[in-house]
Amino acid sequence: MITAIVTGAGSGIGRAIALRLAADGHAVAVNDLDPVRAEAVADEIRVAGGQATGIAGDVSQEADVAGIVAAAESAFGAVGILVNNAGHVHQARFEQLATADFDRMIAVHLRGTFLMTRAVIGGMLDRGAGIIVNVASQLGQIGGIELTHYSAAKAGIIGMTKALAREVSNRGVRVNAVAPGPINTPLVMALSQDWRQRKAAELPLGRFGEPEEVAAAVAFLASPGASLFVGQTLGPNSGDVML
């Protein structure tokens, strides 16, 4: 059993990842900004026979991050898997973007990934073992109309993933990312119907993905079977990006 933290796990992709890692035998610290949602997912895991604890906290705040990691370690021991999934969505044309909207997007996605990773990586390096999976987006690879700030934040996560992997892979810590396409989650459903219709028409597979399909990719990267994957970005994206 490995202790895993999944951020933003109160719904959508994060919830699916938490459930999958628990099913794979890991003890899961379920983080969400909303304590009720975090505890609800932890309850799902416990009812199914797994080990989990719900932890509220904002990954963009250093004090909250310290609390999240401390609570996870208190419950289950040293963190061996970190999935940086916490997300935020806001839609606007670039010329209409307020500085506050841009800053919040970067704070949740990029700063949050940095803070959470920094909080656990020291212990991972000391033990010579650890797995970090960052949830990016295909929009970080190709960009998205009315989502410039989101695309920028996700592109930053992909760049961070590659750079960190070069630093720590030879010390036992594997760092990779997944870049999902549009997935049927509350975040995507919050985008305009026009945007969703246009995006669906572009996909070679002809459909949006499901959270469980992204969770499968994360579970693979967290498994021994992915031992040769270093600094990679897997694309469960319905064919939106082909590399």
TrEMBL record:
<protein>
    <submittedName>
        <fullName>3-oxoacyl-[acyl-carrier protein] reductase</fullName>
    </submittedName>
</protein>
<dbReference type="Pfam" id="PF13561">
    <property type="entry name" value="adh_short_C2"/>
</dbReference>
<dbReference type="GO" id="GO:0016491">
    <property type="term" value="F:oxidoreductase activity"/>
</dbReference>
<keyword id="KW-0560">Oxidoreductase</keyword>
<dbReference type="InterPro" id="IPR020904">
    <property type="entry name" value="Sc_DH/Rdtase_CS"/>
</dbReference>
<dbReference type="InterPro" id="IPR050259">
    <property type="entry name" value="SDR"/>
</dbReference>
<dbReference type="InterPro" id="IPR036291">
    <property type="entry name" value="NAD(P)-bd_dom_sf"/>
</dbReference>
<comment type="similarity">
    <text>Belongs to the short-chain dehydrogenases/reductases (SDR) family.</text>
</comment>
<dbReference type="GO" id="GO:0032787">
    <property type="term" value="P:monocarboxylic acid metabolic process"/>
</dbReference>
<dbReference type="InterPro" id="IPR002347">
    <property type="entry name" value="SDR_fam"/>
</dbReference>
